[in-house]
Amino acid sequence: MSIQKKIESLRAKLHLYNFEYYVNDNSLINDFEFDQLMKELKEMENNNPEFYDSNSPSQRVGGQITKNFKTVEHKERMYSLGNTYSEEEIQDWINRIKKTLEDRTPSFTCELKYDGASISLTYEKGVLVRAVTRGDGTKGDDVTQNVKTIPNVPLKLRGNYPDFFEVRGEIVMPLAGFSELNKKRVSAGEDPYMNPRNTASGSLKLQDSSETAKRPLTCLIYALIGKNLDFKEHYQSLVEARSWGFTIPETLIHASSKHQILEYINSWEKKRGELSYEIDGIVIKVNDLKDQELLGFTSKSPRWAISYKYQAEQVATTLETVTYQVGRTGAITPVANLTPVLLSGTMVKRASLHNADQIKKLDLRIGDKVYVEKGGEIIPKIVDVDPKNRAPIENRISYIKICPDCRTKLVRIEGEAQHYCLNLDGCSTQIIGKIQHYIGRNAMDIEGLGSETVSLLFLEGLIKNTADLYTLREEQLMPLERMAQKSVDNLLLVVKNSKKQPFAKVLFGLGIRFVGATVAKRLANHFGTMENLMEANQEELIGVDDIGNRIAQSLVQFFKNPKNIELIKRLKSYGVTMKEETKALSSEILVGKNILISGVFETFSRNDLKKLIEENGGKVSSSISSKTSFILAGEGMGPSKKVKAENLGIQIISETSFLALLET
Ligand code: AMP
Ligand code: ZN
Q: Do residues 300 and 279 both lie within one domain?
């Protein structure tokens, strides 16, 4: 088989597996095999750039950078929807329709109103050519590269599709993925995202599409648009589109009467908590497309469709007490303890209060009747106070001034909403939290030690920091409660084994603010050793890809503290890994070279180029400095970068000459 045939056959296979998986819920192969095939395809594509295809399944992983999203005019305007909140309003809407249709009652469809970011997808000859956000309705942003990374957006269609058409849908972030993403952020010391909807729309506007690829997004289609499509009904058009590879939720129904519409509304109001994504209502549409045409549009919305909005799920309950949690970074989080109440299927006892400002804004008092709402957040939040059920003013919550644990005076860092206890190494909650973080799965993975044992060891005075773990001795552990010879042996063994964990995990385990697992990997990779990292200044840190000001600052701060230096020295002396394992390089052509990648490339994705550079011994940085060896430039390199490069006398080379360089 020729290379081209082989590539095409791999692509066809992967398209098919995707289609079966996302449309028919049918796994033809397991994840591992899928990844293997994808890897094989990527490799062949890299080696044979002449067979590039912008809609290859390999585009799912992203890697293209968009600095400014192009504004694109919508062929047909993206309208908003009229809202209703009651049965009467729905009746009014039906009455208005009947007037235009000369007293005929049309048939309807009901769909869920998916709560995310609207998107328009244009297909030409079965290939996705453009994805555009709603924007102001007449024009939106071209986010094609990012949308291509969403796994259930078909890049190539199957079956009997029209040559030119557009589908419209909503890109949502399912709740499970959202809370997973937030867990990762919190464990990296970052603020969690507020809700899935904003996170979904934010994810479409990321500059690096490989970042979008990491976001758990899914696309739900609700309309098909185009000239000369021979469909008579909206319902039928969606069912047909499903067979081409689009995801149209099975919750779509026909409804021939108001009674059926109301049934749909009520049943989903009860069941919405069972859905894997959020909805904010339902959408009722006139089914017959001729009828839709007769009804037309107002200046803002179609007359043939309307939404019924659900109230955000809220319940009233009583605020009993407020407690304050101390995180491992010293951040204080106020938590409301509530009289337990049922909210969309789960018993709620606690709600987040975020910070002092939030409490002040609501003027919260102990004993207040409060409204609790469940957004996509990890725990519910208090959104309002019932004005008719106010507790007396003496009960007003005064925010704590000292740490509930160590009694140190709290401070508020400028620009941050949170209060902090800065007694980093005297505050027991912080210390325990830090050690618990160190043993966590993404860090040193010392399973078999366990969070509770960490607390116990600390309270018994056996450990004060992570390095102390490595000095634990059998005779200290044996007298402890619930410890037997076997558990002691095991504990000592798992602690000892953790010394072999790679450098990136050690770095993450240190719990430096904003240094999550991914950032730690990037740093380990770039600097190679702890010493190099500790010596790096702000500028050099920012020069590393994906490292911004905030992370750089946090690192500099961390390494300024002599206690942290001492801790690292001790960890090193016990044999904990402090340098990156050297990988076998494909060549050493780029050893000692700092290379900046800029612009968009024809054949390779940025990620591939990064990998190539690293495999040949080079380092990738993201800002120009006197240390930059050369710039690998694609199309659209920024003018300011160019000027800076010229001033510093740094050579700019193209993708082709770069590849030629590697050949030598
Ligand atoms: P609104 O933004 O409240 O005016 O509502 C209009 C938006 O609802 C549209 O732009 C769509 O993005 C979104 N939407 C969600 N689900 C649906 C659906 N099933 N049918 C039509 N629009 C929907
Ligand atoms: Zn404290």
A: yes
Q: Is 373 in the pocket of ligand 1 (CB under 6 A)?
A: no
Residues 270 and 366 in one domain: no
Residues 277 and 405 in one domain: no
| Interhelix angle 428-439/451-459, nearest 10 degrees | 140
List of residues 6+ apart from 597 with CB closer than 8 A: 606, 609, 610, 613, 620, 622, 631, 632, 634
In tens, the pLDDT along 371-430 reads 998 765 557 889 999 999 899 999 999 999 999 999 999 999 877 889 999 998 889 999
Q: What is the CATH number of the domain that holds 369?
A: 2.40.50.140
**Ligand nearest, relative to CA of residue 82:** 1
Please report, for the chain, how many H helices and E strands are present, in that order: 24, 22
Which residues are bridge partners to 613 per DSSP? none
The total number of structural domains in the chain stands at 6
pLDDT at residue 375, rounded to an integer: 62
Q: What is the CATH number of the domain that holds 630?
A: 3.40.50.10190
Return the pLDDT at 378.
Answer: 58
Distance CA 475, CA 466 (A): 19
Confirm whether 73 is domain-assigned: no
Do 484 and 533 sit in the same domain of this protein? no
Backbone phi, then psi, for 373, in 5-degree steps?
-125, 145
Are 34 and 166 contained in the same domain? no
Mutate to test the pocket of ligand 1, among 83, 118, 221 (most ligand atoms within 8 A of CB): 118
What pLDDT, on the 0 to 100 scale, is given for residue 347? 76
C-alpha span between 579 and 582 (Å, rounded): 9
What is the chain's percent helix, strand, coil content, to nearest 5? 40, 20, 40
* Ligand lying closest to the C-alpha of residue 404: 2
Exposure string over 409-425, b if 16+ CB within 10 A, otherwise e? ebeeeeeeebbbbebbe
Check pocket membership of 167 for ligand 1, CB cut-off 6 A.
Answer: no
Residue 598 falls inside a structural domain: yes
Give the range of the structural domain holding residue 472, as residue numbers without chain letter: 428-500
| Order of strands across the sheet that contains 164-172 | 127-133, 117-124, 164-172, 218-225
CA 170 to ligand 1: nearest atom: 12
Ligand nearest to the CA of 109: 1
- Give distance in angstroms: CA of 215 to centre of ligand 1: 22
Q: Which stretches in the chain have pLDDT values below 70? A: 344-346, 375-378
Residue 578 forms part of a structural domain: no
CA–CA distances in Å: residue 287 to residues 203, 254, 264: 33, 8, 16
Ligand 1 close to Cβ of residue 118 (< 6 A): yes
Q: Which of 166, 170, 252, 298 to mutate to test the pocket of ligand 1 (most atoms within 8 A of CB)?
A: 170
pLDDT at residue 255, rounded to an integer = 96
How many degrees, rounded to 5, is the angle at CA 60 between CA 42 and CA 154? 120
Yes or no: say if 334 and 355 are a contact pair by the CB < 8 Å rule. Answer: yes
Question: What single-letter DSSP state applies at residue 297?
Answer: B
pTM, two decimal places: 0.63
- pLDDT for position 377: 52
Angstrom distance (rounded) from CA 526 to CA 528: 6
How far away, in angstroms, is 201 Cα from ligand 1 center?
14
Contacts of 121 (CB under 8 A, 6+ apart): 128, 130, 131, 147, 153, 166, 167, 168, 169, 219
Closest to 644 in 3D by CA, of 662, 663, 624, 614 = 624
Measured in Å, residue 81 CA sits from the centre of ligand 1 at: 6
**112 CA to centre of ligand 1 in angstroms:** 9
